[in-house]
């Protein structure tokens, strides 16, 4: 048997989707095609009609922790739990975060966020310097994704009932009392555009992160690019 995995199928362009459709219409013998889709509605109806749908649920936190322990036997349980919560039930994301130091990045970000609307300039520059070093492109991307993920949680649920770390709920309440939800939403959209622009144009990573932190502190317009 041959097994092919298409990940993510909903990101295919029209040419790729039509090519895959031809394979699905006349599949080869002894073959299994697994189409991973985060948004099935974006797939061609003709592709969906030729597939059997298997909905996958997130792994439970303790399951991710146990799986991580096999890959990171020397890690403390607190670190494994933090990675599992950041990964939201995905062992693949948890391993990627572990490789890029996602747990410490998230804790550093929360420490910077805890002082808003003031910002610790020395710590902000140290954090941005660390992300700007050579061979740290992926770590910068991880930090940017974690920041946007945190903002998304703040906007979606306010002060989270299940904090990733103990201080998160208090920080969220503090920030929600400082800025209305609409401004946080505008800021989330703004920072998403900023990080996309940084990747496309290869902008200086240190300046991009400092710009993001300054906008979080209200030192830049929330709607500006």
Structural class: mainly alpha
Radius of gyration: 21 Å
Tell how many strands the DSSP assignment holds. Answer: 2
Helix content: 55-70%
Give the biggest beta sheet.
2 strands, parallel
Summarize it.
Helix content is 60%, strand content 5%. The chain has 225 residues and is mainly alpha-helical.
Would you mind describing this structure in some detail?
This protein is mainly α. The protein is 60% helix and 5% strand. The chain contains eleven helices and two strands. It has a two-stranded parallel ribbon. Helix 7 packs antiparallel against helix 11, helix 8 runs antiparallel to helix 10 (181-201) and helix 10 packs antiparallel against helix 11 (205-216). Mean pLDDT is 89; it is low at 221-225.
Q: Could you give the topology of this structure?
A:
Elements lengths: L1 E6 L6 H12 L5 E6 L8 H4 L12 H11 L5 H11 L3 H9 L2 H12 L7 H12 L4 H21 L10 H9 L4 H21 L3 H12 L9
